Amino acid sequence: MYCDLKPSKILLNEYGTLKFSDFGLAKRIVDLIQSPEEIKEGSKKGTPSYMSPELFEEDGVFSMQSDIWALGCLIYEMAVGKPPFESDTFQGLVQKVTHEEPIRVNGFTDEFH
Predict the structure, then answer these.
(1) Strand, helix or coil at 83?
(2) pTM of the full predicted structure?
(3) Residues with a known catalytic role
(4) Nearest-CA neighbor of 84 among 43, 45, 53?
(5) Fold for the domain defined by 7-99
(6) Sign of the C-alpha dihedral, residues 9, 21, 90, 85?
(7) Pairwise CA distance, residues 112 & 76, whole Å
(8) How is the chain split into domains, by residue range?
(9) Tens of pLDDT along 1-27?
(10) E strand or H helix at 10
């Protein structure tokens, strides 16, 4: 699991191939299966704009689903030019991520949203 997917960690080489960088928070799934207590380690680190709602809960932990959430935020940002949730304060951002739907963007299909 990547655990901190965001635009600044995705690079393109001269052939247009995507490269991921900075695996500092990444966890190997096989390691988590063998030592499930490790999943809690670093569970609150990451970039708030790309963290899934459950990660803001007291017992929230990273999962494959939270990586998929971050990927969705990334795709949204690539299409719109900004993350799906923004706020001037951390608490405001948490409120939006945990209780609001992303702003619908005209010209995109329902499947996109």
Answers:
(1) coil
(2) 0.78
(3) 4
(4) 53
(5) Transferase(Phosphotransferase); domain 1 (1.10.510)
(6) positive
(7) 8
(8) 7-99
(9) 778 889 989 899 999 998 988 887 777
(10) strand 10-12
Q: Of 51, 3, 46, which is closest to residue 23 (Cα–Cα)?
A: 3
pLDDT digits (tens, 9 = 90+) for 49-96: 999 999 998 888 788 898 999 999 998 998 889 999 999 999 999 999
What distance in Å separates the CA atoms of residue 43 and residue 25, rounded to the nearest whole number? 9
Contact call for residues 5 and 71 (beta carbons, < 8 A)? yes
Cα gap 48→90, rounded to integer Å: 8
Encoded amino acid at 3, one letter: C
Token pair for 69: 């959430």
- At residue 90, the 3 state secondary structure works out as helix
CA distance 86 to 110: 21
Between the alpha carbon of residue 35 and those of residues 13, 31, 40, 58, 100, the distances in Å are: 35, 6, 10, 21, 34
| Sequence letter at residue 97 | V
Q: What single DSSP character describes residue 102?
A: P
